[in-house]
Write a structure and sequence with these properties.
Elements: E1 2-3, E2 9-10, E3 28-35, E4 38-39, E5 44-52, E6 58-64, E7 79-81, E8 86-96, E9 101-110, E10 120-127, E11 130-131, E12 135-144, E13 150-156, E14 165-167, E15 173-177, E16 181-191, E17 196-205, E18 218-219, E19 223-226, E20 232-237, E21 251-255, E22 263-264, E23 270-275, E24 279-281, E25 284-288, E26 293-297, E27 300-311, E28 316-325, E29 328-335, E30 340-345, E31 353-354, E32 358-361, E33 366-375, E34 378-385, E35 390-395, E36 408-411, E37 416-425, E38 428-435, E39 440-445, E40 458-461, E41 466-475, E42 478-485, E43 490-495, E44 508-511, E45 516-525, E46 528-535, E47 540-545, E48 558-561, E49 566-575, E50 578-585, E51 590-595, E52 608-609, E53 616-625, E54 628-635, E55 640-646, E56 654-657
Parallel strand pairs: 4-9, 11-17, 19-27, 55-56
Antiparallel strand pairs: 1-2, 3-5, 5-7, 6-8, 8-9, 9-31, 10-12, 12-15, 13-14, 13-16, 16-17, 18-20, 20-23, 21-22, 21-25, 24-27, 25-26, 27-55, 27-56, 28-29, 29-30, 30-32, 33-34, 34-35, 35-36, 37-38, 38-39, 39-40, 41-42, 42-43, 43-44, 45-46, 46-47, 47-48, 49-50, 50-51, 51-52, 53-54, 54-55, 54-56
Length: 658
Amino acid sequence: RVTDNDGAFDVDTVAIDAQANPMNQMPIITGIGASPSTTTPYSTVNFTAAADDPDGTIASWAWDFDNDGTDDSTEQNPSNAFDAVGIYNVKLTVTDNDGGYAAGYVTVNVEDAPADIPPNITEVLANPYSGSPPLTVNFTAMANDPDGSIDQWRWDFENDGTWDYTDPSTGNTSHDYTSAGYYTARLRVTDNLGAVSNAYLGISVGGTSNLPPVAELFVSEPVVYLGEVGSETVTLDASYSYDPDSSGSLSYSFDPYGDGNWISNGNDPTYDFAYSITGSFNPRVLVEDDTGEDIDSAQIRIYRFGSITPDSAGAVGQYTSLAVVKGNPAIAYYDQTNGDLKYVRANNANGSSWGTPVTVDSGGVVGSLPSLGVVNGRPAISYYDSSNSDLKYVRASDSSGSGWGTPVTVDSGGSVGSYSSLAVVSGNPAISYYDLGSQDLKYVRANDINGASWGTPLTVDSTGSVGLYGSLAVVNGYPAISYYDGTGKDLKYVRATNANGSTWGTPLTLDTTGDVGWYTSLKVVNSNPAISYFDYSNVDLKYIRATDATGSSWGAAVTVDSAGSVGYHTSLAVIDGNPAISYRAVTNGDPRYVQASDASGSSWGTPIVVDNAGNAGTYTSLAVVNGKPGISYYDITNADLSNFSRRGLHVPPGLRVV
């Protein structure tokens, strides 16, 4: 308002947006951790945090241990004890001096305190086992303790209840038998927490012919993966046990957890037990005849999937692609709310805590159907640009993916680039994809190791509408692609005739039984190419493997899961030496995981439900994460990105990981 000397005035206005600092750069959380990340109730967990502010200082730290929206500590590095069993997604909020903030998460698994696992006796020998008196017998014993250390070795040479030998460091000793007879020598090994294991040996002095049995124990599954709930039945098999002199029948007792709780099983040498507790266990069998007994043990490791949500900012997590980047799991995915391509990487090798998601491309509606890989030491992504109907590619500017380069348009000839699959072929990145305009399967390879420039796209198959749901892999040195033939409604496979993929062979039709071949995933399994895929006609999950290393001939297709409407969004990987598949079950709206019982995938185990919380499990992606299966997927109910990974021993819609 302006007034002159006669009292007249005029008024004008201008809008002012008052902010703390509109140019403020948000703080960056550079480190967040919990030690230990797996614990028991009322045990102390120490949290650590580190952060930088590009244009100021860190003003405050706030920890929400139970993620209930209330801050529990304002220390930078606090401690906390959880009083209940559960999975806690602990939230850290860092605020800078201008009011900008950043949030990070770390997961703490609080589990029931495990029972003390007894020592595992791995070897017990006598030399000799028989002879005339006086007989000097040398005893050898070896053992380990899964959750502690060996505290004491003892021998009772006549099994008369008197310990004849005690030593804290070794079970190797000798004993002189001076009188004829049959003796049972008993070994007892005690760990540092007092748990004990026993083993028995029969010694024949003076020609005694009736000898004790020999126990042999095997387990049907030495490594077991459990879903978020439920159990898995494992067969304890002692059928290879025997009686050296065949003097009578054998009876069997089993100790499934190796904790001393024996279950009598009569004359049946096999026992089925449902394991529901995570951990490393040494199940045992006690085999008895009319003169003695023997004990053998095996080892079994039980893991359970646990989930975490790396991104929940809007409707995020569609079309997930999981890979291991610089030792830690990472995910490329689509942000539907903003129409952007996003990327997030875990802070550790197991994926129990995750960094801040990064927007990789926001130039229009971009980022659907991405494929994540590592190209010349850095993460890279192929994806579809919906705004321009183009195939695009982008590579990070560092090895972890915290910064990204400028996206490259690889093919813009019409509506191209959907269902892209990225792989490194003969040293350079290459992509298979679908050309919607011509309805063809196409392939393109970069001219350099980073993907800065690209060659001319090639049409690999143009017979009808072909190329949907493609998956690219290097098979016996040459690139190969599995895909769906929309015209014939068949599963197809094609392999290049050279290492670069500049020429291609004749496509093979692998499965024609109904409408099959959706959501293909191609991997090399036990030296030969194999494919997981969806049978639309029967709504089943299927698998097929070649009978040679190049994929020129193929075996019969196997139905892996037919319980309801199952098999959408398949992802194939090799876990613990056997093929495994993650996929979606529409019937219950959950992600599932199934692993083959052998290295080739001729037979398969029982599928497990990875996450049963609502309608989750679309767009699954499976990878080996620190030696165990990890799965990323989209949680429709909460519209979040999720991840599930096998928890260690003892061990929502949106993007999620397990």
